[in-house]
């Protein structure tokens, strides 16, 4: 760990998901909530495909930035530090991909069903992130920032699949 140098602002800002990683009670959940909140404007676009593609763009950009910044964070805070929560933000975005269908709904943020499914997406993602079934835990074995990000990406994929199935069955 680097003790003699100050952790640069930008990688710290990204790694902590814009500061959410400093939340003292469940920083991982705070990182996921940041993902949900930052995604909300996409639900207002009126375009399902555009919302889906914009979400994919966010996932790609912040996965790359997350791997980079998490790798730097390990030099200052040790292996897989709890303050690094960009992985949770990205994982939440992945889980929310099926919610893109709400972009075609007039006033989606006024819809009770939107908020129900958004909450379900959060619960599903956090479940897979915390329990780490079906190879999720194995992703942590990857080196550096890649391992930090990979388990949450896989948890997000599992969450998205289950969310899509539930939405198909119950809507």
UniProtKB/TrEMBL annotation:
GO biological process: lipid metabolic process
Pfam families: PgpA (PF04608)
The UniProt record lists the keyword Transport: no
Domain YutG/PgpA stretches: 13-166
GO molecular function term, any single one: phosphatidylglycerophosphatase activity
UniProt-listed CDD domains: PgpA
TM region(s), chain numbering: 20-40, 52-73, 114-131, 152-170
Annotated PANTHER family: PHOSPHATIDYLGLYCEROPHOSPHATASE A
The organism's taxonomic lineage, starting at the top: Bacteria, Pseudomonadati, Bacteroidota, Bacteroidia, Bacteroidales
Organism whose genome encodes this protein: Duncaniella dubosii
Keywords noted in UniProt: Membrane, Transmembrane, Transmembrane helix
Protein name per Swiss-Prot or TrEMBL: Phosphatidylglycerophosphatase A
